[in-house]
Every structure is written in C-alpha cells, then in structure tokens.
Amino acid sequence: MKPFAYVRATGLPEAIAAHGARPGSRYLGGGTNLVDLMKLGVEAPDTLVDLTGLPLDSVEETADGGLRIGAGVRNTDLALHPLVRTRYPALSQALLAGASTQLRNVATTGGNLLQRTRCPYFQDVAKPCNKREPGTGCGARDGVHRDHAVLGHSPQCIATHPSDMAVALVALDAGVELQGPDGARTVPATAFHRLPGDHPERDTVIEPGEIITAVTLPPERAGFPSRYRKARDRASYSFALASVAAVLDVSGGRVRHVALAFGGLAHRPWRATAAEERLLGAAPTEGAVREAVEAELDSAEPLRDNAFKVPLARNLACDVLNSLSGSPRS
Amino acid sequence: MDSTPAAPAPSLGSPTTRLEGREKVTGRARYAAEYALPDRAYAWPVPATVPRGRVTAVDTAGALALPGVLAVLTPSDAPRLGACDDPTLRVLQDPEVPHRGWYVALAVAETPEAARAAAAAVRVRYADEPHDGVLHTDHPAAYTPEQANGGYPAHREKGDAAAAFAAAPVRVDCAYAVPPLHNHPMEPHAATAHWDADSGTLTVYDSSQGSGLVRSTLADLFDLPADRVTVVSEHVGGAFGCKGTPRPHVVLAVMAARHTGRPVTLALPRRHLAAVVGHRAPTLHRVRLGARTDGTLTALAHEVTTHTSRVREFVEQAAVPARVMYAAPDLLTTHRVVPLDVPTPSWMRAPGECPGMYALESAMDELACALGIDPVELRVRNEPDAEPDSGHPFSSRHLVECLREGAARFDWAAHRTPRRDGPLLIGTGVASATYPVYVAPSAARAHALPDGTYLVQTNATDLGTGARTVLAKIAADALGVALDRVTVEIGHSALPQGAVAGGSTGTASWGWAVHDACTSLLALLARRSGPIPEAGVSVPADTTASAKQKSPYARHAFGAHFAEVQADTVTGEVRVRRLLGVFAAGRILNPLTARSQFVGGMVMGLGMALTEHSTVDPVFGGFVENDLASYHVPAHADVPDIEVHWLDEHDKHLNPVGGKGIGEIGIVGTAAAIGNAFHHATGRRIRELPLTPDRVLAALG
C-alpha cells in the first residue's frame, strides 16, 4: 500500500504545523469517510494528522446562551446532549437520521461537515469525475443519477452533499469556527459549503491547513420550534433522497422567524431564502406555506432521472413547516 | 452393543441450537481466508475498467517495483487452464473483456495491503468495443433457449392460451419488472490455496456451497487427478446461491499458489462481488390471466424476458412456477433471453420461483380486484387436482390450508378495508409461495466407536443454516441415541461425497444418506456381539440409486404470505407493518433453525419488494451498486415483527427424512404480498420493483 505518516496532534498549533510540513496532509477525525476513501484510492494522503486527541470534544453553553460544540464531539454524543435536544431539536433529529449507530459513535462534528459526496462516480477511480479529478468529466450526468442534485448543479458536477447534520446547522444559523496558519475566523454555516460551479473539487470554503475547531449555535434560535425530516430508500443507514430542516417562530398569527434548508438536493445544504422571504411576516397557512415552498423549488433543474425529488422536497417542507406552525416555543 | 435402558426422546422436531455456535461466537470457527498457513502470500485481482473490449497491453512494471510484490499474472502469461464447463472460470486465458469487472490481472504479494497496492498499480490498456447492457422486451437479440435454469424446457404450451385468453370474460394482461439483484452474503468469497510441489497435492480452503464440485473443477482446470486435490469448506458465512459453483477467486488463488510456490489467500473485496460471483438476472414479465366471472381460470400465459452475459447462457426460469400453481386448462409458459455485455447471472435464493411468483401472484391479485373476489378465495377456487403442466399427482399439496391458516392468524377478514392514519395509507395483501422438492445423490459413513459415541461423516456444507446440527439430529434419531452421543464431520472433500448445498436440497440429500448409514450401522451392530473394537465399526451408504429414481409425483412445498403495509403520502416511503408466513414444507426437523430460514427468506423478500436493486450502468457498463451502503439490504428498522408458522405435513413420497427443503420458499411470494398490500392501501399498482419513494410518489400522483 502507499505508505503514509501518522501524526497524533498534541495541540492546535502543532497540528497546523504538522499539516503544513508536508503537502499531501489530511486531518483525521473519526475517519469514517476519509479511511474509506483511502481504501478506494480516492484519497492518498502522505500524512494523517490525527486531531482526536485535541481538547475539542466538549459541548459548552456560551456566555450569551448559545452553544459551542467542539469539532471533535462525536455525532452520538452531540445528538443525545440535553441542551441540543431541548434547544435545537432539529440538530439532534438530523444527527440521529444519519448513518448508523456504529458510525455515529465514531464520526465527529468537524468530520461530518467535511465528508465527501457518495456519488458512485466520485468513489470509483476508474470512472470520470470532475470533483475527484478536475477536467475528466462528469460520469453521473449521462450515467446513473437518481440520487443526484436538482438545485444549483453545474455542467461540471451534479453531486449532492451527504450530511444530515449540516442541513440542520444551516437552518439554525450555526457558525463554523476555523483555525488556520493565518489565524482564526468564523464562517456562517450557510456559507461554509459551496456550489460546484467550475470548481467541484472544492466542497467548502475551508483553506489549506485550516481546522474546524468548533460549531456555534446562536442564542437567538435556542428554544425555537425546529424539526428535521428525511426521506430515504430504507429506514436506516441510507442517505437522504431529500431532507428538510426548518426553524419556525410564530406569534400573533404571523411568522416572526423562519429558516428552511434542504438536504439531498444540492452540492451544499440548500437554504431556501426565497421561501423564507415569502413567509416572513405572513400568516403561516397551509396555502401560504405551499406557495412559498413551491416558489423556492421553481429554480429546480431536475436531471433525466431525478425529477421526483422536487415534489418529494415540497411535500417534506410543507409537512415540516405545517407541523411547526402550531408548535410553541420551548 | 450398548445397553441403554430406553431410547431417548427423538431429537427431530425439537429445537436445537447450532452445534458449532460456541466456536462461531468465540471466533474459533475458521473461514476460508483465516487459515494462516506458514509463509502465506496474498492475491488481489484487477478488474477490467471498460464495459467491453480487449486487453491490448498490461504494464506490470510499476506494480512489480512496489515492496513485497511477488508476481503479477496477466492474460498473456498466466498458467493455461484445462477444460471446464463454466467459462466464467477461464480467467486470464485470453484478452477478451466481456463486461466491466472481468478480471484482467492478478497481483500476488507478501501482505493483503501490498497485493492491493500492486493491483492498483497495474496499468492495463484496452481496445474498447461498443457495448449494450440494457434489457428490453423487444431487444432484437432476444431468443427462446432450449432450456432454462434447472433443466426445465424453456417453452411449454398446453392448449391454446392466447385463444382462451381472448375468449375469457374477465382478463388481466400486465407487465412486471424485477431488477437485477445481488446475493451479498456476509462473508465475501475467499479461498486459501496450498500447492505442495513435492507431493503434487493441492489443498484449498474455499468459501463454497459444495467442496466436492470445487475439487472436481479444480482438478480439471489444473490437470490434476482428483485424489490429489482436497477442498475444505468447514464454515461458510452465507451464500444464497452465489457460492453454489466454484467462482473465479478460487481458480486465481490456486494459480497464484502454483505460480509462487507459496500458500495464497485471496479474499474478494465487497466491491468486486457484483461483477464476478453472479446475480439474479433482471426479469421482464408479461402475465395474461383469463377467467370466468366466478373466478375460474381459463387461460394463463406467463412470458419472461431476461438477460444473460456473452460468457455463458443462464436463463432465470421465472415462468416455471406457473406450471405448478393454478388449474388453468390453457397454459403457456415461456422464456426469452438476451445476451448482453453484463456480468454473468447465476443462482440467487429461489431462482425462477422468486421473481416468477412476484409476477404471477401480483397478476392473481389484479384478477381478484377485477372480479371483486377476495384474493384468498380466488386462489382457493383455482386449486388444481394435479400439477397443471405435467398432469402428475401432487405428493402432497397444502396451499389452501396455508392460505386458510394464514388468513385466520393474520385476521385477514377484519383487515380488508384500506384505512388512512394521517398521511399513512394502510392496506393488506396476500400471495402464495411454492418451491420444488429436489434431492441429489449423496454418500455418508456412520461409525460406532468403543466409547459408545458415534461419528457420522458426509461432505455436506453448512452455510450458517444449521446443516451440521440437523444432520446430527437425523443421525441421533436413526441410531436411537441422545444427540450428544453423535459427532458429525462435514465440509471436507475427502469425506463421503455430498451434494452441493443448493436448491433447498441439502437436508434431504445428505440426511437421506446419513439416515441410511445409521440404520445400516444399527442393523450391523444388532447382528454382532462383543465390544466395539478400537477401530470402531463403520458402515457406508450411498443414495445414488434411490435418490435418482424418478418420482411419479409432482413434489413441491407451498406457503402463503400475508402483509400489512403503510405508504407515506408525504415521502413515498413504504414500510411493512406486519408480515406473516405459513408454510407446508414436509417435516420440520429443527424448529429453531427452520424458523430462521423462513424469517431470513421473508426478510430477503421484503428487501426485494422495498429496497434492493442493482443497476446496469448504461454508459460505463457493470453494476453501479458496489457496496452495502448503496445496495440496500433491509436494515433492522425496515423489518417488522415477522411471524412464521408451518403445518404439520406428512408426505410419504419424499425421502426417509420427510422434509421438503426450507431454504428458499421463504423468499417466494413475499414481494408480491407486499406489492399487493401497497395496492390495497393506495389503490395504485406499481409493477416494477422495488417500491422506492420515486416510484411511489409518481404512482400516488
């Protein structure tokens, strides 16, 4: 096999330095995706810098009443955390809808955000894929693409982002804290993942050497009614055909806050701003909800074999928003 | 003879846990890849990356330069193989690439990792050829073969089904589609081969359903006398038919062992399996049913179109169960096959019956709806007096009893109104099941030992089903001793010849020989006096003459499935709420493992109905689903509390063991029952499996 070096990071600066020391370095979290990709030959790092020994594994309440989730917190621990379950239920639901118990016990918060698409052409080094190998073409476009994107795809790439968790984070206006060779910064979850455009090889805005250190949840969303719902081919351990995360605050019969995000439809979790604009300030009747969701999905461009995702996403979004419109704040 | 005062209670019919259970759960049971022979090396094959073509060059330099690499075999320099009936085993013999995934080279190295890296470093150049992997009913290459799998005539016609159909007052004429499916047993195919050049002997540990067939095949391929070849399949981690014949991995392992002079283990990665160990071929069905208004069938036509590879003709015999099921005077059953640039299909649990009964039992449900007759009742009204196609009397047939018993236990009559629970549409469905009784010649040897115990030997294979245990029970009862006095040895080609573990034949075939050996031994012991000598007393048995005798009876197991299903109108997700099966399969020998077999078959049928499918890539060839993340076998969350019952069936026209075989009937009809329940729930019929949200949403409009 291709030999690689393994470095167990002792601190953030050391991790960043170790990563920068060799060009083919990858940070290692739970390894549930990276190690698979190494076996497939999709990834062939020279060095793995293991971050799981860093003190990034706690969930803390911030002074302003939000939550700061260490990037090393395992998906299971995060899903079951009492403050997550009570204040940000959509996040807990999204995590539990993902993968399997065994995978969730190992997968980390940071790694979940950085997992790669499960497009079969991306995973097969003998087939063309612009994401894996820019310029080789997209095998899925004329091949098998029932599970692929209907929103925001490009001629270069029709892959979807596989995370459930990220969809909830986008709807909850989470922040992604990064630490890199040039310092620290925070990127809104809504801006963390990219659309493919001409550079499908780049899934996120993360820069070389940067580490996700934490995910923050804003106090403004704590206790708002929120929900995640996912449709899939089997009841457990399968990726979303489509999913929805929504946050909805209604008072006085009017929508005071709404956030709607789709999973399984695009190269990134898809924040449905057009739908939100229509609903904000309006009475959340079933008709208004449907109209808003349909307005958002008007921009969908289904491929030959995945047009079903549009009505599926519409149904899910209407169902989740309608169920939330009668929910009180906790 | 031993002076036990009274014979112990019979073991057969009472539940017994697997005799090797402790070995398995403690990790001591060894599977084919786990024989850590001294100095062993590892092999990793290289699959073709074009859908069809020819290898023009193989550059092995990069691979051979890697550390720990011992050899790379290619089509131009691999050892030449002898004659073989199965062309899928003639690996690395010529440059042709009949489908994506066909092996084009083999890397051998000191470690599995090095072998894998070497395989990845082999550079293969191809001359591409145009390819076609997509099956259509009107494909110009379709032809009617002589025979379908199992040796059945591909085409049978009794009376004039087309004319009878045209004249029938009530008609159903429907097309159904079953996609390619994959067996995916838990243990991928693996072999460890050891060539001893000094003695000229070959020893192979293989994950196989029949080590005897592996031995004779390897002897032919490597031009060795059969007595120089030993094949061991002591424990096998599931198979479902895809280990029923030798597979390329074992041939490659032997090639590598002979080439390097080292013991070699080759364990196929999951991602290779879809292309090289067989699959259930897709089947496109047209079923026409004509009936009188009272539900009496007057015409039945089942026409099947399926695919095979360009390597070998394999025809899924999906129209064959229609020859068995219902009393239709005018009966047409026929198959057409299209050779495509696809991997070679083969056996998967209940080949023929499984996809065929999905179509036939769906059509029967459509007919019941068209007639306004209860679907249980419709089946009862068409119960034949004799096997419809052959006219032979049934040795026993308790389909009606299974339907009635199932209907009562399921509370069928009370659930015949579809209901709505919020967004969920809920309904019920029923389907019949059938599977033929086969039996194959086997031999066994029974030994009485001086310590009062017995040793029984036959080259049976235990795929995880409990074969070893049930043979011990058969022996114990035949000998009239307690189970713990009997030791069974199986899974070794040096033992008396045993049939392949396939076609639900194992227990009947091996059990017959074991029974004969034990009863002969008992008779011999009764005739002799004095203590058992140190070497023991032993008796052989061989059922070749008796098992090959043609029965005047049509012999089949029958069953009935009842399903309650919910369809979510929001997501299109279909879930099974209840699944109940009743089977009439002769004598049930070990209720514990029998239940597992039925439940396992039903779970696999549930997967066929709702989640499982493989897709031929129309652009790149081969199958798209190459791992268990994308090939969706049911997860626990998909499987409801499955209820299984069986009738106490005594059929004296079978074999001394009295069983009909239970390995496959559980999967037959399950998908139809679920599909019929979906229709009952929603009023919509989906005639293509599986019932995934895309299809369901389209159907619900």
Automatic annotation (TrEMBL), chain A:
Tell me where in this chain the FAD-binding PCMH-type domain is found.
1-222
Any GO MF annotation of the entry = FAD binding
Keywords from UniProt, A to Z, are:
Oxidoreductase
**Keyword Oxidoreductase, does the record have it?**
yes
- Record Pfam families: CO_deh_flav_C (PF03450), FAD_binding_5 (PF00941)
Is the keyword Lipid metabolism in the record? Answer: no
Highest taxon of source? Bacteria
**Classification via PROSITE patterns:** FAD_PCMH
What PANTHER family does the annotation carry? OXIDOREDUCTASE, XANTHINE DEHYDROGENASE SUBUNIT C-RELATED
Q: What is this protein called?
A: Molybdopterin dehydrogenase
Record the organism.
Streptomyces roseus
Automatic annotation (TrEMBL), chain B:
* Chain intervals for the UniProt region annotation (Disordered): 1-20
Q: Which Gene3D superfamilies match?
A: Aldehyde oxidase/xanthine dehydrogenase, a/b hammerhead, Aldehyde oxidase/xanthine dehydrogenase, molybdopterin binding domain
Q: Does the keyword Transmembrane helix apply?
A: no
Q: Which domain of life is it from?
A: Bacteria
Q: What are the protein's UniProt keywords?
A: Molybdenum, Oxidoreductase
Q: Which organism is it from?
A: Streptomyces roseus
Which residue ranges does the record assign to the Aldehyde oxidase/xanthine dehydrogenase a/b hammerhead domain? 26-130
Name listed for the protein in its UniProt record:
Xanthine dehydrogenase
Q: Name one GO molecular function term.
A: oxidoreductase activity
